[in-house]
């Protein structure tokens, strides 16, 4: 392998309890909120193409005019307690919240910037009450931080000249200072979610990104940081020059889910997903396909069946309220999680072969296997191929506990019959398995 000073420092996944806790989340919430929520994808009354949180970079927008939005940021409907309750009722176990997006606007009172919540009419820290409210609901908080900062004059896309490097050195110091602030002001933060690290300037800063990660983990032992922060000294990201993951989990699954378990490559991973096709910040016009709760639950089950977490994004409006579609989705998902959560929480890949009707998950606590059924066959007969030397001791519908008929076909092939009727949301069947020899024991009449 290639000798690397700033490549991966660990081979294989983390084995500590903080990471085990991260693996068990199942369902998370992402929140994108900032100045971009005020225009909500429109500028001078016209819709602007692209993601709403990227509107400052549109040719139609004068960056100075965008930055002046700070004088309008006064979210009178911001209610972090209500936000946390909505997340709790949805079944959320962790939340990732934008402290600073690419536009550089800081939702916390940063001493290192003049473009923060303190220079807005709101004049109060947004993050602190948010962290407190979510933690109170038992939801862990992760902080999103964009390295790329369009507002900071020392930001560089590329280091072409000596003066670029001098400016970018100042920028790196500024970045380290802001991250220190975040971990100091909000000590219960469980992890940092980095973005805006794809440009050449950052790819040329592999050593710094490595030292920064080590510094942050020293400041907060156990901190969870994905593979989007680092570059190695050759400019590789996510995987170093030896093909080893840099970071605690694979952070490439943005608006996409691995097709096969092979694509997971054995890494820890999460998928972050938008409700509309590609809007993270509030957009007044959700054009294109908007996902239903069933679609979202299918994505959630899909991710868990492949050993990952699923994180759904919400984009509150400029005034701090949520749009109706998001409120309804949170409720519908929460209703399903209330009945079927054991198939999602502390669950992961099962040892069953995937079938067309949906996804298998396996609980790490109950040891039970779950069938999350999306595509009910016209026959209502679900094919189940039982792994070697295992037998199904019981098969029940979650919620109703109704025992379902099990029919042996041949060899390891069985059918489980789902009760008929139209379902609005996926059904979950709980399988209690026992090993063959255990079964023989059970079959032997007690002497
Ligand atoms: C090309 C591209 C760059 C940045 C993004 C950001 N990452 C997401 C998590 C959002 O923050 C989006 O603005 C999305 C696409």
- Which sequence of SSEs, written as H and E, runs from N to C? HEEEHHEHEHEHHEEHEHEEEEEEEEH
Overall morphology: globular
Beta-strand residue percentage: 15-25%
Task: Please state the structural category.
Answer: alpha/beta
Helix content: 25-40%
Radius of gyration: 24 Å
Q: How large is the count of helical segments?
A: 10
Low-confidence parts lasting 5 or more residues at pLDDT below 50? none
Report the bound ligands by name, code or SMILES: ligand K80
Structure notes:
- By secondary structure, this protein is of the alpha/beta class.
- 25% of the residues lie in helices and 19% in strands.
- It is built from 10 helices and 17 strands.
- Helix 3 (80-90) packs across helix 9 (324-340) and helix 5 (162-185) packs parallel to helix 7.
- The mean pLDDT is 96.
- The structure holds the ligand Cc1ccc([C@@H]2N[C@@H](C)[C@@H](O)[C@H]2O)cc1.
- The ligand Cc1ccc([C@@H]2N[C@@H](C)[C@@H](O)[C@H]2O)cc1 binds next to loops.
- The ligand Cc1ccc([C@@H]2N[C@@H](C)[C@@H](O)[C@H]2O)cc1 is lined by residues 32, 51, 53-54, 195, 254, 272, 280.
């Amino acid at each position: 392998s290639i000798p690397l000073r700033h490549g991966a420092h660990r081979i294989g996944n983390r084995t500590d309890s903080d990471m085990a806790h991260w693996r068990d989340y199942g369902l998370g919430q992402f929140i994108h909120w900032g100045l971009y929520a005020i225009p909500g994808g429109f500028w001078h009354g016209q819709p602007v193409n692209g993601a709403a949180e990227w509107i400052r970079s549109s040719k139609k927008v004068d960056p100075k005019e965008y930055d002046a939005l700070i004088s309008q940021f006064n979210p009178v409907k911001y209610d972090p307690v209500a936000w946390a309750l909505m997340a709790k009722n949805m079944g959320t176990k962790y939340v990732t919240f934008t402290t600073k997006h690419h536009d550089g606007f800081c939702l916390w009172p940063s001493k290192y910037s003049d473009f923060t919540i303190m220079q807005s009419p709101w004049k109060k820290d947004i993050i602190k009450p948010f962290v407190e409210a979510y933690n109170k609901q038992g939801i862990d908080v992760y902080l999103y931080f964009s390295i790329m900062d369009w507002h900071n004059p020392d930001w560089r896309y590329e280091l072409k000249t000596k003066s670029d490097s001098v400016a970018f050195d100042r920028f790196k110091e500024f970045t380290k200072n802001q991250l220190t602030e975040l971990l100091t002001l909000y000590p219960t933060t469980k992890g940092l979610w980095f973005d805006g690290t794809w440009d050449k300037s950052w790819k040329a800063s592999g050593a710094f990104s490595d030292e920064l990660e080590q510094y942050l983990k020293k400041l907060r032992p156990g901190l969870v940081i994905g593979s989007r922060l680092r570059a190695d000294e050759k400019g590789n990201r996510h995987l170093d020059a030896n093909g080893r993951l840099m970071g605690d989990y694979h952070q490439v699954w943005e608006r996409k889910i691995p097709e096969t378990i092979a694509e997971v490559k054995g890494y820890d991973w999460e998928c972050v997903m938008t409700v509309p096709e590609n809007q993270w910040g509030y957009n007044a016009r959700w054009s294109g396909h908007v996902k239903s709760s069933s679609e979202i639950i299918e994505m959630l089950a899909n991710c868990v069946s492949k050993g990952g977490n699923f994180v759904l994004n919400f984009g509150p409006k400029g005034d701090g309220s949520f749009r109706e579609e998001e409120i309804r989705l949170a409720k519908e998902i929460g209703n399903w999680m209330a009945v079927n959560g054991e198939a999602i929480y502390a669950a992961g890949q099962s040892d069953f072969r995937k079938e067309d009707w949906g996804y298998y998950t396996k609980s790490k606590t109950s040891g039970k296997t779950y069938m999350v059924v999306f595509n009910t066959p016209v026959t209502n007969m679900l094919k189940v191929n039982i792994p070697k030397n295992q037998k199904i001791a019981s098969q029940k519908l979650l919620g109703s506990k109704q025992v379902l008929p099990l029919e042996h076909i041949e060899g390891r092939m069985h059918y489980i019959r789902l009760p008929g009727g139209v379902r609005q949301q996926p059904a979950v069947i709980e399988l209690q398995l026992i090993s063959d020899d255990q079964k023989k024991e059970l079959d032997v009449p007690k002497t």
